[in-house]
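Incident log, support desk, overnight shift.

02:14 A customer reports that sequence design results differ from what the structure should imply. Their input is reproduced verbatim below. On-call engineer (initials T.W.) acknowledged and began investigating.
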């Protein structure tokens, strides 16, 4: 039997909540990847997650501050 829309929605929100509870680990992995490309970069988490006010529908807002403009055409796989 297929799941109802509300069951799927509940499962999705519970999954997202589990991910958001681990936001520090995720942000740290992003920061590590950014610093591999640009060691001088500063990486911050902003928004509801940083304030501790997230809900299951929230996202993780990550701000990357570079010391200079990136070189156009130069690409790195993160």
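02:41 Re-run completed on a clean worker. Output:
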């Amino acid at each position: 039997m297929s799941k109802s829309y509300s069951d799927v929605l509940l499962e999705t929100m519970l999954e997202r909540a589990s991910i958001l509870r681990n936001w520090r680990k995720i942000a740290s992995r992003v920061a590590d990847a950014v610093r591999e490309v640009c060691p001088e970069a500063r990486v911050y988490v902003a928004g509801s997650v940083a304030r501790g006010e997230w809900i299951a529908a929230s996202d993780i807002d990550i701000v990357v501050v570079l010391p200079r403009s990136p070189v156009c055409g130069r690409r790195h796989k993160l």
